[in-house]
């Protein structure tokens, strides 16, 4: 593995957004027991009372889907560019609620290197609680993605974010790169809480614009947040409507470097 990493790094040279920091990702570390005072949720979401070690160490948000207005939401989804044009009735499930957890064990990096080592790299919101900021982005995307679904089986969707790696300022205005996003998802019975599906890891990487391409995209309103939200909306729709699930894109050597 070390030999492979050295070869890849040598091949990239100065033209690639390489991992230059020494921070160590902690997405696979066990959850730490933190004081409840450190638990926050984005504005507009109620914080759930801790019921497990995962929830007591995470930025948590839950949204109950207002299916009485599902036709309106479905029409909006079909008009949203890049979302996939999903209409009600194409999935075997109706999602009752969405819960997104961002464990506090995930390490945040604020280093302005090309691709710093860390589990969470996010810069489009002001410096603050990055776990809560990421939670809101993922929550918004998941709610929008599942709202049009109208299948016979009712289920709650639970998402646990494992990696949310957008671009630093340096990469954004030079080389670009990859938005590397990974999460676990599971469907649960709304009444009993029992799992209806086994947990599934989803990798949802997205090309990240850089330089003039990023500037042009922002001028069209396609910020990193907008593009990531649209992408995750499409990803969760594919996971719940396509028997094969979502197939992660192949984005070249930068994507490979992200996983070393």
Q: Can you tag this structure with a few keywords?
A:
disordered N terminus; single chain; alpha/beta; 7 strands
Explained architecture:
- The chain has helices at 2-12, 53-56, 70-79, 130-146, 169-172, 211-219, 224-241, 253-258; strands at residues 58-64, 93-103, 120-121, 153-165, 177-188, 200-203, 206-208.
- It is an alpha/beta fold.
- It has one domain (2-258).
- Strands 1, 2, 3, 4, 5, 6 and 7 form a 7-stranded mixed beta sheet that branches.
- The longest helix has 18 residues, at 224-241.
- It starts with a helix and ends with a helix.
- The model is unreliable at 1-56 and 68-89 (pLDDT under 50).
List the helices and strands and how they pair.
Layout: H1 2-12, H2 53-56, E1 58-64, H3 70-79, E2 93-103, E3 120-121, H4 130-146, E4 153-165, H5 169-172, E5 177-188, E6 200-203, E7 206-208, H6 211-219, H7 224-241, H8 253-258
Parallel strand pairs: 2-4, 3-4
Antiparallel strand pairs: 1-2, 4-5, 5-6, 5-7
Helix pairs in contact: 4-7
State mean pLDDT (0 to 100 scale): 75
Would you list the SSEs in sequence order as H and E? HHEHEEHEHEEEHHH
Strand content: 15-25%
Main structural class: alpha/beta
Distinct helical segment count: 8
Number of strands: 7
Computed Rg = 18 Å
- In whole angstroms, the N-to-C terminal distance is 8 Å
Roughly what percent helix?
Answer: 25-40%
Query: What can be said about the biggest beta sheet?
Result: 7 strands, mixed
Rough outline: globular
Count of the domains: 1
List the uncertain runs.
1-56, 68-89
């Amino acid at each position: 593995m070390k030999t492979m990493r050295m070869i890849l790094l040598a091949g990239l040279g100065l033209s690639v957004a390489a991992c230059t920091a020494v921070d160590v990702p902690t997405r696979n570390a066990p959850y730490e027991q933190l004081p409840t005072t450190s638990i926050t949720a984005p504005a507009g979401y109620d914080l759930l009372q801790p019921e497990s070690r995962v929830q007591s160490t995470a930025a948590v948000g839950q949204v109950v889907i207002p299916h009485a207005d599902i036709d309106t939401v479905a029409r909006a989804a079909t008009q949203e560019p890049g979302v996939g044009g999903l209409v009600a009735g194409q999935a075997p499930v109706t999602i009752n609620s969405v819960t997104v957890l961002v464990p506090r064990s995930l390490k945040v990096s604020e280093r302005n290197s090309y691709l710093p080592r860390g589990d969470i790299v996010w810069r489009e919101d002001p410096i603050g609680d990055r776990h809560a900021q990421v939670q809101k982005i993922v929550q918004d995307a998941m709610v929008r993605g599942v709202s049009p679904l109208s299948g016979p089986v009712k289920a709650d969707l639970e998402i646990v974010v494992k990696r949310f790696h957008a671009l630093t300022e340096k990469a954004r205005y030079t080389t670009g790169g990859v938005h590397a996003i990974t999460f676990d998802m599971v469907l649960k019975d709304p009444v009993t809480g029992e799992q209806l599906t086994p947990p599934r890891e989803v990798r949802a990487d997205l090309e990240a614009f850089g330089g003039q391409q990023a500037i042009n995209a922002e001028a069209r309103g396609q910020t990193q947040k907008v593009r990531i939200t649209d992408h995750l909306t499409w990803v969760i729709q594919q996971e719940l409507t396509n028997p094969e699930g979502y197939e992660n894109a192949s984005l070249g050597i930068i994507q490979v470097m992200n996983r070393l």
